[in-house]
Amino acid sequence: MSLRFASADDLTWSSDERIALEHANPRFGAVFSDHMAVATWKAGEGWADDAVVNYQGLDVNPGSAVLHYAQEIFEGLKAYRHADGSIWLFRPDQNGERFVRSAERLALPTLPVDDFVNACVRLADVDSRWVPEPGDSGEKSLYLRPFMIAYQDFLGLAAASTVLFSVIGSPVGAYFASGVKPLRLLVERTQARTARGGTGEAKCGGNYAASLRSQIEAKKRGCDEVLFVDAVEHRWIEELGGMNFMAISKDGQLVTPELAGTILRGITRKSILEVAPDLGLEPVERKIGIDELLGGVRSGEFPEVFACGTAAVVTPIGSFLDGDTDVQVAEPTGKATMEIRRRLLDIQFGRAEDTHGWLKRVR
Ligand SMILES: Cc1ncc(COP(=O)(O)O)c(C=O)c1O
Predict the structure, then answer these.
(1) What 8-state DSSP symbol labels residue 128?
(2) Which InterPro entries match (predicted)?
């Protein structure tokens, strides 16, 4: 039976003034909407207790498996307000399918895609007042964070027997506080984020914890983000800490690392590969060596390079720091990059026709 995520009887609501204040200057993931969708799962019983309740602390004991063994997965998607006031999600079924794959990898129970999508729709509907107008940046939205944790109070190392699923929401503006400014990337040739056979393709917290030390180093060295390479040969480009990587060649190829189990199957990545032909670009998924890339950036073979993901949409890359060598990108806010960015945002915010059928109406 499908989960309904009906509203609890005791929901409380923020004032219009408070919401307007938070919408004026949204801080990514720092403020949360009034409510959350929840459901629990028990081995032998399945999913139950689905509801939309007030945003509140979780009943997690110190012995909970998630705290010790990182048995946890999450997702990220956004609710967009269109000019007519309607609210939409972008390809939530894709997030739901990835959530199933992540759950399987982390020995968590799977949540049917329809239930996942319904939980997101219900929270965005109940908290529709928290979905901002797109604003001057044209990018404000309500970020939804579905997640699942194993919270049985038991230190034995075992698959989850008690699980909590939840969706929370946070109003967001542009991911990078300074707006669309080309990123400077630190090339990380030593510390890997994930490895073949590991959990790179799953969206689980451990992958992100493993990337933080490199991220700190990047900041110290004046970079915004880290570009990770593979864990074996330390030369094949993988992705950034929280975004996929793409380069545009001077003859119109849109090149991105192939999916080999170590990088996240980004939904933005997939969508860009699907719209690329409409923009006159040929999508190519293949291995890209870091030396080939940096050589191609220097020679002009790759005049444009960018990162992509739900949070930042499409963000141009302006330079790389590889050891002590600085490599500048020829066209850091290049025409093709900005066109891809605009195309995606226009579909998400209803400013262009959704010819692919990617949007799911909330209300
Ligand atoms: C490691 C990583 N790669 C790529 C992405 C981009 O994925 P998506 O486009 O589905 O947001 C994300 C963000 O979700 C991520 O965390």
Answers:
(1) G
(2) Aminotrans_IV, Aminotransferase-like, B_amino_transII, BCAT-like_C, BCAT-like_N, BCAT_family
Residue 9 included in any domain = no
244 ligand 1 Cβ < 6 A: yes
Q: What is the mean pLDDT of each run of 10 residues along the chain (363 residues)?
A: 94 98 90 98 97 96 95 98 97 98 97 98 98 89 98 92 97 76 96 93 96 97 97 96 97 97 97 97 98 98 98 94 97 94 96 97 98
Tell me which H or E stretch contains 35: strand 35-42
Residue 178 lies in a domain: no
The residue whose C-alpha atom lies closest to atom 4 belonging to ligand 1 is 243
Atom of ligand 1 lying closest to residue 77 CA: 11
Q: Indicate if ligand 1 lies below 6 Å from the C-beta of 94.
A: no
Do 271 and 194 have their domain in common? yes
Q: Which residues of 15-33 are buried (b: 16+ CB within 10 A; e: fewer)?
A: eeeebeebbeebebeebbb
| Distance between Cα 239 and ligand 1 center (Å) | 9
The Å distance, Cα 200 to ligand 1 centre, comes to: 11
Domain boundary among 114, 141, 172: 172
